[in-house]
């Protein structure tokens, strides 16, 4: 079984992908690449290391983590995580504050500036481009697209409900938000 992005094996079920599924995945990759290209300038202008960016992204999805929790999430030691948090604090991306439940602990939370950066990196141009592209669909195609994307969102929501990890909870919240807007 290969592990390339173009593999023809269903890694979760162990079977061959149907031609329809291969076509859907190829289309999804093409759209994803197009969206990534829209905000490459934002990514290239970042003055953050990969560890700092990972910490900031994690903190925007789970504010109020301790430095120890940041270290665990990043798979680093506490001193390295503390240095990462120091850098993010100095640049205004996060704040440190005393834990109201345990004054010996310090919690880290993203600032509005940090949240805006992560949001911009995730969405810059992507949502506007999707709107522009979707508006160009023929009415029948728009109905089919909407039905398909809502069906996929429902599958993601069910999967997120079964997944009790923080990532699963985040997926569940994101899908709930999408469903509310639909």
Task: Give an overview in words.
By secondary structure, this protein is mainly alpha-helical. The radius of gyration is 20 Å and the shape is elongated. Strands 1-3-2 form a three-stranded antiparallel beta sheet. The chain has helices at residues 19-38, 40-44, 50-61, 67-74, 78-90, 112-123, 126-135, 139-162, 166-181, and strands at 65-66, 94-99, 102-110.
Give the helices and strands, then pairings.
Blueprint: H1 19-38, H2 40-44, H3 50-61, E1 65-66, H4 67-74, H5 78-90, E2 94-99, E3 102-110, H6 112-123, H7 126-135, H8 139-162, H9 166-181
Antiparallel strand pairs: 1-3, 2-3
Helix pairs in contact: 3-5, 4-5, 8-9
Which percent range fits the helix content?
55-70%
* Silhouette: elongated
**Helices and strands, in N-to-C order?**
HHHEHHEEHHHH
Our measurement of the CA-to-CA distance between the termini, rounded to an integer number of angstroms, reads 38 Å
Task: Enumerate the strands of the largest sheet in spatial order, edge to edge or round the barrel.
Answer: 1-3-2
Beta-strand share of residues: 5-15%
List keywords for this structure.
182 residues, mainly alpha, 66% helix
Summarize this structure briefly.
Helices cover 66% and strands 9% of the residues.
């Amino acid at each position: 079984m290969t592990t390339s992005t173009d593999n023809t094996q269903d890694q979760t079920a162990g079977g061959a992908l149907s031609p329809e599924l291969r076509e859907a995945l190829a289309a999804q990759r093409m759209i994803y690449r197009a969206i990534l290209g829209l905000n490459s300038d934002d990514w290239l202008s970042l003055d953050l290391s990969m560890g700092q960016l990972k910490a900031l992204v994690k903190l925007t999805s789970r504010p109020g983590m301790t430095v120890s929790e940041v270290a665990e999430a990043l798979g680093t030691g506490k001193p390295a995580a503390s240095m990462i948090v120091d850098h993010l604090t100095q640049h205004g991306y996060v704040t440190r504050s005393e834990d109201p439940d345990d004054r010996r602990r310090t919690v880290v939370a993203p600032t509005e500036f940090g949240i805006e950066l992560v949001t911009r990196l995730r969405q810059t141009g992507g949502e506007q481009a999707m709107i522009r592209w979707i508006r160009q669909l023929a009415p029948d195609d728009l109905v089919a697209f909407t039905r398909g994307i809502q069906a996929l969102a429902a599958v993601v929501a069910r999967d997120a409900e079964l997944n009790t990890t923080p990532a699963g909870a985040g997926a569940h919240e994101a899908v709930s938000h999408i469903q509310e807007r639909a």
